[in-house]
Structures are given as structure tokens and as C-alpha cells.
């Protein structure tokens, strides 16, 4: 078994070897994009049929070699519940077992395991998703190679057109542990000369400001709510940095955040969208006219409530996504719970690709404790999303902490989880936090939409 640094260097070498092609793909016509989707769909379905017992049954009625994009309608949607109920039979490497992957994540959380790679080639991440329902998903070697390039190819394309001047320093605000996909993905740089500083999202804002002032990054990447908070610190005169490029991810980006970044730093924010299940899926280019979907690597189907395609993508009830790369966990017509608006009009950043112009879902809220301490939802996600016996959860803010409601299967280590949350909240600046965790049969949902609000701030 190789060590993490050796594997990471090898992986980044493969990432960089693919970058030129990844950038060239941005100039493809719509016809070329659809041709690539058709060819890759046939290969991914064939691999799933041959190597995944679950997909062999689900896709057995299809002739993979002659599939057309229209044949996707013959495939039933795949949900997170389907994945978790059939995990061992869904993956294509028969050595992989859900119980072993959960144990691998647990060893990482405890510090016993330092290497996030499993069997030298797979990365596993657990996610609570926008609904709070836990899932565990795998990225294989190819998945990471593609995702880094989707994340950075527009940035690298701009660097080639206008090379940056001065020290190359990128500050990244993300999860503090490799068990979360943001920590594994975003610090990966295509430019080998670019230095990176990682700031855990649960770091108190004052400490974050001090470290950024010392580091003086020319680029900043982070959750949109964190970016907005740092803009406010800049306008207050506490944060003294001048980033030339700012990117946000993982949360909806508000117009107020864009306006504040323009006021604080004179730059607009490049937004990005994706999920652990499908990877980084869309990135905003220099026109700031929406996030270009990575349609050379993913198929996006806006559908209605009956999973039928809609003519007007803005009226879709949900989105089905098919991954055309990475075969260890085939995601074919996977149901994404985010509600996005897709625009098919001419795209100035990539002529053959559609764009996301709005994301209506996934609005997590900070917990504000008296205006002095603000806690980001990642503090809770990083603990609760890793517990394999929690199916869904809701976090309700209390005056000095939080009440957690958890739908469980089997016993959960309540005291251990409680202590982890207390430690994380204290690390975020909340003095003597009070946390309770309760196992419940159901979570409170909106009476009309049946949607779950996963983080509930105090009114």
C-alpha cells in the first residue's frame, strides 16, 4: 500500500496530463458534445451491466452498443435510497463493501488512518445532502482526474490568456478533514507552482482573518456564505487582502455576495455547483452569465414530477444526472435533489454547452449566537454526516448550542457524537456549548411541500 503523498503526486500528474484536452473541449460544438455523450453512455452502461449485479438487473433490457440519448427514458431513476440499499451490489469492484468503507471513514475521523485512498485507488465520502439523508459515494482514479479539471479548466484557460503576476497563493476554505469531498478536491491545483493554504470552515472568523492577512492570497475559494462573511470583514477594515479571483461552491450564491465582493475587492465571484454523488458539475466563466455545465462528462435531464422530460428547463421539478466517467459506482439517471434552472441559449464561455442560471435549493443557514459567534453548517455536517447509523437528521439551533433530531437504524454513539459536536462548536468560538441528540422516527417537514429544512436557526 502506497502512502498518501505518493498517491497524491501521482494523481495530480495524471490530472495535469489531461488539462490541455479538458480546456480544448470547451470549444466543442453542441453536436460534438452530444456525440461524446452518446459514445460515453454506451461504454458506461456496458461496464455497469458487466460488473455491477445491481445494474445488470436494472439495465439488462438495454443493448448498450446501440444506445441513443433518447433511450435514457427506458431507465428508471436512481435515488440515494436505492444506492444505499444496494451498495455492495451496485459497485463494480467486488472487493468493496459498505461496512468496510464505513470503517475506513471512521478510522480517518479518529486519526487512526492517515491515507484517504482506499486500495490505493478509491476515495470515499459520506454526505448528508440537502435533505439530511446520509449517503456514501466513491470516486475512482478517473473521477478525481476529471473533477479537478472541470473545477479549474476555465480558470487555467484564463491564466493562459492573461498570465497572473506576482506570488501564486490560493486560500481555500473547506472541510477540515479528508472525509469530506471539499478537502480532497479543492486544494488540488493544476498549476504545480501555485501554493495552497487550507482553512477549516469551523475556524473562528477572527482567526481566519489573521491567517489570511499573513498569507496574502491572490485567489480565494470557499463556501459562498464564508466568502460573504470575509467581504464584510474587508469592508470593516479587518481583512486586508486583494484577491484577483474568487470562487464559491457548495452553497447558493446570492446577488448580495457578488455585490459585496465587487465593493470589497473589485472582483465578481466565479460560482461553481456539484455534489459528492456526481462531482463538480458546473463552473462560471469570464462572462458571469451562468455556470457552464460539464456536459462532456455528464448528462443532465430536467424532468417533471413524473420523471418525464420538460421543454422548459426552468419549470423542471428535479434533475436526473448520468456520470459518463468513473466506473466504480455507476450513477445512471441519478436523482439530484437540487432545483436548478438550465439555460440553453448561446453560451459565450463554451458554445456547445448549456448553463445553470439559478439554483433554487440547498440554502443552508448560519447559526448566529448573539452576533458575536457564527457557526457554519459544515460544523454539524462534518460530524453527523459521517455516522453510518444515522439515515437523516435535522439540527435546530438553541440559545447556546443545538438540538439534533436523528432518524437512526441501529444504535448510534450519542455521547461520542455529542462530544464531537461540542468540541467543534467550541473550536468555532461558542463558549460552553450545549448539545442534545435525540433518536426519532420521523423528522418535521413542510406540510405542503414535504421538504426538510435541515438547519433551523433561532428566529
Describe this structure in words.
It is built from 13 helices and 21 strands. It is an alpha/beta fold and 459 residues long. It has two domains: 363 residues, Rossmann fold; 90 residues, ANL, C-terminal domain (GMP Synthetase, Chain A, domain 3, 2-Layer Sandwich), CATH 3.30.300. The strands form five sheets. Strands 5-4-6-7-8-9-10-15-14 form a nine-stranded mixed β-sheet, sandwiched between helices. A four-stranded mixed β-sheet has the order 20-19-18-21, covered by helices on one side. Helix 10 packs parallel to helix 11. About 1% of the residues have low confidence.
Structural class: alpha/beta
Could you give me the name of the CATH homologous superfamily of the largest domain? ANL, N-terminal domain
Overall number of strands: 21
Distance between the termini: 51 Å
- Strand arrangement, major sheet: 5-4-6-7-8-9-10-15-14
- The average pLDDT is 90
Number of helices: 13
* Cα gyration radius (Å): 21 Å
The poorly predicted ranges are 447-451
Question: What fold name stands as the CATH topology of the largest domain?
Answer: Rossmann fold
**Count of individual domains:** 2
Q: What is the level 1 CATH name of the largest domain?
A: Alpha Beta
Strand content: 15-25%
Amino acid at each position: 500500500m502506497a502512502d498518501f503523498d505518493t498517491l497524491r503526486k501521482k494523481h495530480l500528474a495524471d490530472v495535469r496530463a489531461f488539462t490541455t484536452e479538458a480546456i480544448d473541449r470547451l470549444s466543442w460544438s453542441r453536436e460534438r458534445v452530444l456525440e461524446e455523450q452518446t459514445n460515453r453512455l454506451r461504454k458506461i452502461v456496458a461496464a455497469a451491466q458487466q460488473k455491477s449485479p445491481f445494474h445488470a438487473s436494472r439495465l439488462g433490457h438495454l443493448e448498450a452498443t446501440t444506445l441513443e440519448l433518447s433511450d435514457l427514458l427506458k431507465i428508471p431513476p436512481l435515488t440515494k435510497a436505492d444506492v444505499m440499499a444496494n451498495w455492495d451490489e451496485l459497485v463494480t469492484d467486488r472487493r468493496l463493501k459498505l461496512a468496510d468503507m464505513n470503517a475506513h471513514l471512521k478510522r480517518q475521523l479518529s486519526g487512526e488512518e492517515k491515507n484517504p485512498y482506499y486500495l490505493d485507488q478509491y476515495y470515499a465520502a459520506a454526505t448528508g445532502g440537502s435533505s439530511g439523508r446520509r449517503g456514501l459515494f466513491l470516486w475512482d482514479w478517473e473521477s478525481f482526474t476529471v473533477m479537478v479539471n472541470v473545477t479549474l479548466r476555465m480558470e487555467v484557460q484564463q491564466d493562459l490568456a492573461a498570465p497572473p503576476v506576482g506570488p501564486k497563493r490560493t486560500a481555500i476554505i473547506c472541510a477540515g478533514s479528508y472525509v469530506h469531498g471539499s478537502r480532497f478536491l479543492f486544494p488540488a491545483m493544476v498549476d504545480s507552482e501555485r501554493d495552497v493554504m487550507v482553512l477549516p470552515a469551523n475556524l473562528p472568523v477572527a482567526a481566519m482573518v489573521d491567517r489570511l492577512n499573513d498569507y496574502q492570497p491572490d485567489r480565494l475559494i470557499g463556501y459562498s456564505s464564508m466568502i460573504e462573511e470575509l467581504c464584510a470583514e474587508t469592508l470593516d477594515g479587518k481583512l486586508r487582502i486583494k484577491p484577483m479571483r474568487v470562487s464559491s461552491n457548495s452553497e447558493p450564491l446570492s446577488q448580495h455576495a457578488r455585490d459585496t465582493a465587487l465593493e470589497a475587492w473589485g472582483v465578481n465571484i466565479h460560482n461553481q455547483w456539484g455534489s459528492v454523488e456526481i462531482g463538480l458539475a458546473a463552473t462560471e466563466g469570464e462572462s458571469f452569465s451562468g455556470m457552464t455545465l460539464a456536459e462532456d462528462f455528464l448528462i443532465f435531464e430536467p424532468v417533471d414530477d413524473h420523471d418525464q422530460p420538460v421543454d422548459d428547463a426552468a419549470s423542471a421539478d428535479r434533475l436526473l444526472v448520468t456520470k459518463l466517467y468513473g466506473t466504480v459506482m455507476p450513477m445512471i439517471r441519478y436523482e439530484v435533489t437540487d432545483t436548478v434552472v438550465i439555460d440553453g441559449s448561446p453560451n459565450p464561455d463554451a458554445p456547445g454547452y448549456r448553463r445553470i442560471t439559478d439554483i433554487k435549493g440547498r440554502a443552508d443557514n448560519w447559526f448566529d449566537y448573539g452576533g458575536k459567534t457564527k457557526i457554519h453548517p459544515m460544523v454539524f455536517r462534518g460530524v453527523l454526516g459521517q455516522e453510518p447509523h444515522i439515515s437523516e437528521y435535522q439540527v435546530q439551533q438553541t440559545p447556546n448550542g443545538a438540538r439534533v433530531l436523528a432518524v437512526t437504524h441501529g444504535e448510534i454513539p450519542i455521547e461520542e457524537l455529542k462530544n464531537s459536536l461540542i468540541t467543534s462548536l467550541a473550536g468555532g468560538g461558542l463558549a460552553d456549548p450545549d448539545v442534545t441528540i435525540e433518536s426519532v422516527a420521523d423528522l418535521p417537514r413542510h406540510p405542503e411541500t414535504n421538504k426538510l429544512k435541515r438547519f433551523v436557526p433561532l428566529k
